[in-house]
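USER: If only I could read backbone structure tokens as easily as an amino acid sequence. It would mean a lot if you studied the pair and described how this chain folds. Here is the record:
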Amino acid sequence: MRLPIRLLINLYLVMIPVLALWAALFYFAMVDEINDEADDSLEDYAELIIIRHLAGQELPSLNNGSNNSYRLRPVDSLYVAERPRLQFHDEDVYISEKGEAEPARVLTMLFRDKVGKWFELQVFTPTFEKADLKETILGWIIFLCVALLVVGIGLTMLVFRRAMRPFYALLRWIDRYLPGQQVEPLPNDTNITEFRRLNEAAEQMAHRAEALYESQKQFIGNASHELQTPLAVLGNRLEWMLNSLHLDEEQMAEVIRMLDTQRHLVRLNRNLLLLTKIDNQQFPECSRVELVTMIRRELEMLSEIYEEREIRCTSQLPDRFEVEMNESLASILVTNLLRNAYLHSDRGAEVTISLSGRTLTVENDGSAPLDGSRIFERFYQGAKREGSTGLGLALVRAVAERYGLTVQYDFVDSRHRFRVTWPSGRVA
């Protein structure tokens, strides 16, 4: 959810109860004010009737054209003792002229005449329909909410977008930043102190991350390069021991295991050095690379290497497929994808390679899916296999990131499926 929408929702969650409370207070204040005016009018009218009654004058006609009407009747002392002398209340009063009951404000007053006789005077005046008033206020409150919502969305989006322009510029800058590339200067032309500090902190963090990244790449590259010579010397000495010394069967088996470990270290070191070179962008040159020939050549070699495991391979390849890439990196991509499929296939399994459109698909049989979120991480291996360094798919991802390729992994119908898709700009 976007920040302006979240702000509007929070604003309305606060505003709606406030408006509801305001509507309730407004309603009761209006009713109280109207009742005060009606009560004053009723008291004046009642006072007129009592004065005329006590003076023995003619009382006003019930239909004298005014909004007020009254009812006067004698009562006994017991009735008076049980009731207040003055009382205001609301009730529905039947209007004979209209033939229906109407809401009215009623004043009930008890008084005595000169001889001590008690009378009850009820004075009525028509008033408003409270239900209609509630509906009117509710309707206007709903209209106000909708109007505020529409106006609020427009004003919030306009003001927010203008005020948050430096923030969106920072987001675009972060999206463009990639480790290993030169850090672009971040525009910091805002007058808002918080945004200026945020931009400065982001730029400083990027420079620190870049320094650490370069230090890490340099360390890996230097370490891999320095390991090449001692590993080669170690391999030569082990081979010399096998060829020159008179070893018994147990000693020879131990030396062979040591030689296998040395070869594994050589492959691991070579792959680490390749990753460092790719990260350092040491393969800048590009040319037209014909992938179909490269794939077929690699398949022939893998078929010979894994012949004893009876792995079946089927391929659906076009006559030609040319891409704009560095030839060495294209070879690394194809080789590691195909070797991964063969290496992690059991005896008698089937490997399928297809190239359709701009997508290369490599499939092999499997018993369980791999962790798709980690399969391309360095040194991650779902199931440890002899000869695997855990860097093959990491190299695939590094090459893909170098050229903007899309790499996907799926597990469908008990088969591992890797797909590499070239962007249209990379297809020759």
Summary: The radius of gyration is 46 Å.
